[in-house]
Amino acid sequence: MAYDGQSNAAICMEGGKCLDGTVLIQGSKNAALPVLAASVLIPDTCVFKNVPYITDIDCMKNLLKSTGAVLEEHKEAHMIRIHSENIREYRLPARYVSAMRSSVVLMGALLGRLGEALVDYPGGCVIGERPIDLHLFGLEKLGAQIWTDKNRIHAYADELKGALIKFPFPSVGATQNTILAAVTARGTTVIKNAAREPEVTALCDFLNKAGADIEIGHDFIATGRIVIHGVDISRLHGVEYTVIPDRIVAGTYMFAVLCAGGNITLENAPAAQLRSVCALIRKMGADVVLDDENDRILVSTDTKQIIQNVPFVETGVYPEFPTDLQSPLLASACVSKGTLILKERIFSSRFKVVEELVRMGADITALDNERVQVRGVAKLAGRTVIAQELRGGAALVIAGLAADGITTVTDTRYIKRGYQDIVGDLERLGARISYVD
Ligand code: EPZ
């Protein structure tokens, strides 16, 4: 059954078969969302290519339409044309804001375009409380006045002015929100300790192509320094932009090989963004070849090699090991030899998937709020398990590849928020997997 973003069909797979083949990596969810939001700033037409067809993008499209943007979609070409000449509505509909936290980056774009934004508080989610104090900190530094009540945030700015903004923590969303508001502010903004994630750099690349004036030095990873020289909105113009590949989807499939074994090639894969992940997977015993030139990653585990857990891994901000690959790593650790202690340092409760993995026979113990201990077992047992959030859901799918018998993952709507077609991708890699109603 082909991908259908609207259905909540379960995913069913039979484990025990090695992966073998080539798969093309989709466009990045976390890069596409902020650049689509950025189109609100540009009183012109932008064309976006390699847009992933996932439900979070559907949500962003509805939010953009609610501001007055006119969208033309060419699904089969993964292309969206956005006409933002007549953006007029600064109030975002609650139903879409609450459906997707990253809607909050529209605040910066609306402030920059209309001088006002009214959004609902994007609530917490199953991976933890997700406050937006750093977003509001950045916007207030730029001169926005912000009123909040229990569930709405109203931001207003007569005029946004450049400022020096030092983030106490390099929040990805807060960095993106601040950049969007600073693009047309009067004067220069210097951000210190900005998030270094590739999705932040991609946003700056897009904005510069559209006429903004943003400087990111070669030492950006070390300094986290971004300088934004405000430009008049009339300087901003439409561009044709191709969304970068999704490093988290690529990493998920790399861990799928550790679960099921085999030999895969990831095409259009952001090899340079996955160095920490590749280093770890090599240490666990797989062969990894990064072909930066051709955006290709080869991962293989031959039957002689034992996939071994490393003793300790902790998540961190880029370029450290990414929190979004913590659950896929956890799934592969369940069937690797030896013991891993895994520490989640970014989100406050990102181990919800543990209970479902344990039901499949994994040996996982919570050591405290931040750490779990995984002891590898020879095999997991196929079960019907429930996806509770995006990356945990993907982890259950790759765990099913390693399990004896049939695994069915339900509530796959969470997975479709970020994976365009995890079933089709894994099928192309030789997995026995399908959607089932
Ligand atoms: C982005 O979320 C990604 N989402 C997340 O991916 C990713 O896990 C995260 O960055 C970290 O890399 C998108 O890009 C759409 P943060 P974001 O602000 O911007 C705390 C996925 O699976 N914080 O860097 O929300 C926050 O609570 C998703 O694709 C504050 O305290 O991440 C969290 O503990 C999940 N105050 C930590 O910082 C704030 O104002 C990291 O959050 C903002 C954040």
Describe the structure.
There is one protein chain. This protein is α/β, with parallel strands linked by helices and 437 residues long. 30% of the residues lie in helices and 25% in strands. It has 14 helices and 25 strands. The strands form 7 sheets. The chain has a 4-stranded mixed β-sheet. It has a 4-stranded mixed β-sheet with strand order 2-14-16-15. A 4-stranded mixed β-sheet has the order 4-5-3-13, with helices on one face. Strand 19 and strand 20 form a beta hairpin. It is globular, with a radius of gyration of 21 Å. It starts with 9 loop residues before the first strand and ends with a strand. Residues 29-30, 33, 101-102, 128, 130-135, 169, 171-174, 195, 197, 199, 323-324, 346-347, 390-391, 418 line the site of ligand EPZ.
Short description:
By secondary structure, the protein is α/β, with parallel strands linked by helices. Helices cover 30% and strands 25% of the residues.
Characteristics:
437 residues; alpha/beta; 4-stranded mixed sheet; 14 helices; disordered N terminus; binds ligand EPZ
What ligand molecules are bound, each kind once? ligand EPZ
Q: Distance between termini? A: 10 Å
Question: Major beta sheet, specifics?
Answer: 4 strands, mixed
Which residue ranges are poorly predicted, with pLDDT under 50 across at least 5 consecutive positions? 1-5
Shape: globular
Global Rg: 21 Å
Number of helices: 14
The structure class reads alpha/beta
Helix content: 25-40%
Report strand %.
15-25%
Extended strand count = 25
Neighbour order of strands in the largest sheet: 22-24-1-25
Average per-residue pLDDT, rounded, comes to 95
